[in-house]
Amino acid sequence: MRDFTKSALFWLLAGLALLLGFNLLSDAAFLRITIHDGHLFGVPVDIFTQSSRTMLVALGMTLVIATGGVDLSVGSVVAISGAVCALVLGHGHNLAVTLAAAVGVGLTAGTVNGLLVARWQIQPIVATLILMVAGRGVAQLVSGGQVIIVAHAGFEYLANGFVLGLPVAPLLVAMLFGLTQLFLRRTAAGLFVQAVGDNETASRFAGLAAARVKALTYVFSGACAGLCGVMTAANIRAADANRAGENAELDAIFAVVVGGTALTGGRFSLLGTFLGALLIQTLTTTMYYRGVAPAVAPVPKALLIVAVSLLQSETFRGWLKERAAQLGWRRRTNRANPAPTPP
Amino acid sequence: MKRHLPLIATAAILATLFAAAALSYEGFASARVMVNLFADNAFLGIVAIGMTLVIFSGGIDLSVGAVIGFTSIFTATLVTGRGWHPALVWPLAILGGAALGAAMGTLIHAFRLPAFLITLAGMFLARGTGFWLNTESVGITHPWYAALANFALPLGGPIQVPAAALIFGAVALAGYVIAHHMRFGRTLLAIGGSEQSSVLMGLPVGRAKIAVYTLNGACAGLAGVVATIYTGSGNPSMGVGLELDAIAVVVIGGTILTGGRGHIVGTVLGLLIFGTIQAAILFDGRLSSWWMRIVVGALLLLFILLQRALLRRVQR
Predict the structure, then answer these.
(1) Residue among B125, B244, B308 whose CB faces A299 most closely
(2) What tens digit of pLDDT does each residue of B222-255 get?
(3) What is the pLDDT of residue A1?
C-alpha cells in the first residue's frame, strides 16, 4: 500500500478524483451520462473522445521516451498523413487503402527518425526537429496549401461513430493500448525498451540490439501519429495541413510525463500515459465548463507540468523532506521544551 | 581552422544561396534587400542570439515565442489602453521576460528538472497570460512609435538602416562580447561541454545557468518590444512556432545542440541564410511559402550530419 501511494498512478488517480469531485460539487450534471438514439452522451464520454487522439500519439511517444529519446515530429506526421488520406480518398480509393497509406506515411517518417537517432546517433531532439520543421511544409505541399474537405461516411465513422452505444475513437485507442501492453509485457519487448532507456551501453554489452530497439520505437511512434492523422482529419471531415496536429507533440509528451514516465528514460507505464492524457483533457474540459476562455487554458496546464515535474524530481523530494523534518523538529522542541536529542 | 569549419560551411552556404538568388532574380543583390534581411528578421535574430547562449550551456528554451506574444500584447495594452509612456513600458516588458527566464532557470538548476519541460510550461504560461490580457491584436499609436517607424540611420548613399535592424545589431554585438570575450561565455561553453567537470573546476555553474535563462528571457522580452515597433501593434498570437525557427537558425549557424561548441557569428550567418531563403521565395512569387520550411528542414539535416561527421573526426 505504501508503495502504491508513492507511485505515479496513485497521484494520477488522486488528481482525477479531485477534479471530478470539484466538478460534481459545483455542478452535479458534470458526470451525468444519457442515452440518445442508443448512444452514450455526456461530458465524461466527450472527455474520452476528445483525449483519444492525444492518447494515440502519446502511446508511441511513451515507448520513444522510455528509450531516453523524444519524438518532436509527430505533429507534422499527423498533418502529412491527414493530407495524404484526403488525397487518397479523393481519388476514390476505399477505406482500407486510405488507412494503409496513412500508416505507411507514419512508418516512413518513423523510419527516417529511427535511422537518424539509432544509426547516425543524432540527439533525438535534433533528429526529430528536422522532420518537425520540414514535415509541415511537406504536408502543405501534398495538400497544395489548401484545406481539403473529405466527404466519406466510413471515414467519418472512425472519429465520430458509435459501436454498441460507445464512441468508436476511444474504443479503438483503448484496444491499441491493450494490444501494445500485451505485446510488451507478454514478450521480452517491454524489458528491452526499458533496458535500453536505463542504460544503453549496458544493454548493448548484454547482447541487446539496442540501436534496433530504439529505431523500432520511432517507427512505432510514427505509425501511431499516422493513425492519429486519419482520426484528426476524420474528426473535422477535412485535412488542414496548417493546423492538424498542432502542438500534438507537446500534448503527447505532457501526457507521458504526467503519466509517470521520466524524460530520462527507463521505466515506463502505458496505463499512466492513458490516465495522464485523460487527466489533461479533464482539466481542459473542466475549464471550458467553468467558462474559462479557451485561450487562457494553457495556464493551468503549465502549472500542472511544473507541479508534476517537481513531484518527480528527487532533489525536490529531498528538499521537501528536509523542510518537513525541520518544521517537525521545531514543533516538537517547542512542545516538549527540553533539549532535543541529536539524531 | 578545424574549429571554425562549421562556421566556414555556414558562410559558404550563405554566399552560394545569395549568389544563386542574385543571379536568378533581378534586383536581389541590392543594398535595400540586404538591409531588409536584418530588419525583417530582427526579432527572430534577437531571440536567436539569446538562444545561442542557452544552447551553449546545453540547455534549451521553448518559451521565447510565447514571451514575444506576451510582451507585445503587454506593451500594446499599457501604451494604448492605459496611456502609459513607452519609455516606462519597454523596460517593464523586458523585465517581465527576464523574470520568467529567471524563474525557469532557478527551477531547472535547483531541482535538476529537464529544461525542455520547464520551458514548455513557461511557454504555456506566457501564451495563456498574453491571451488573458487581450485575445485580439491592439494597434499602437504613440508619437514615439511613429518616430521609430519612420526612423532610419543613413549610412551613406541609398543605404538606410531602420531601428529594428539597429537594435538587432546591438544585441548581436553584445552577444558576441558576452559569448567570446567574457568569463560568463566561457563558463557557459564549459557547462555545455560537461556540467560535472565544470562543477569540479569550481565554475559558478548554478549562477551561470540561471543567468543565461534570465538573459534569454530578457532577449525575448526585447524581441517582443521590437515586434511592436516593427508591426505597430501588439498581438498575443505573435511568435507562434518562433522558438523552432530560432533553434533552426542556431543549428544552421554551426552551434551544436548538445552544447559546448558554437559561435555567435554563426547564428548571425544562420539568420541571414534564413532571411535569404525567405526573400528569394518572396522575389520568385511562383514558389509557395511552404518551400521555406522544406528548405530549412533540409539545411538542418545537412548541418547536423556535417557536425556529426566533424565530431567523429575530432574524437578519432
Answers:
(1) B125
(2) 999 999 988 888 998 888 888 888 998 998 888 8
(3) 47
Whether residue A299 and residue B60 make contact (CB cut-off 8 A), yes or no, is no
Question: In chain B, how many domains are there?
Answer: 1
Q: Is residue A45 part of a domain?
A: yes
Q: Nearest-CA neighbor of B96 among B117, B72, B113, B60?
A: B72
In-domain check, residue A208 = yes
Structural domain containing residue A279: 2-298
Mutate: best of A116, A309, A316, partner B, most B CBs <10 A: A309
pLDDT band at residue B2, thresholds of 50, 70 and 90?
A: low
Is A258 inside any structural domain? yes
Phi-psi region of A301 (alpha: psi -120 to 50; beta: other; left: phi over 0): alpha
Query: Is there a contact between A121 and B308 if contact means CB atoms under 8 Å apart?
Result: yes
| CA-to-CA separations, A286 to A24, A26, A30, A278, B175, in angstroms, rounded | 11, 11, 9, 12, 44
Domain span at B171: 5-23+30-315
* Mean pLDDT, rounded, for B108-118: 89
CA distance B31 to B41: 16
Residue with cell 534581411: B37
Query: What pLDDT was estimated at residue A237?
Result: 81
Q: Provide the CATH number for the domain around residue B169.
A: 1.10.3470
Pairing state between β A162-163 and B138-139: unpaired
Question: Nearest by CB to A123, which of B118, B129, B258?
Answer: B258
Q: List the single residue in B112, B135, B288 with the smallest CB-CB distance to A293.
A: B135
Alpha helices in B151-263 (DSSP H): 163-181, 183-193, 195-200, 205-231, 242-252
Count the domains in chain A. 1
CA distance A125 to A64: 11
Q: Looking at the partner chain, which of A253, A299, A313 has a beta carbon nearest the beta carbon of B113?
A: A313
Task: Give the model confidence (pLDDT) of B204-224 as tens digits.
Answer: 999 999 999 999 999 999 999
Residues of A in CB contact (< 8 Å) with B are 70, 120-123, 125-127, 129-138, 140-141, 145, 250, 253-254, 257, 263-264, 293, 295-299, 301-303, 305-306, 309-310, 313-316, 319
Give the predicted TM-score (pTM) of the model. Answer: 0.86
Chain B contact set for A305 (CB, 8 A): 117-118, 120-121, 124
Distance, first Cα to last Cα, chain A: 28
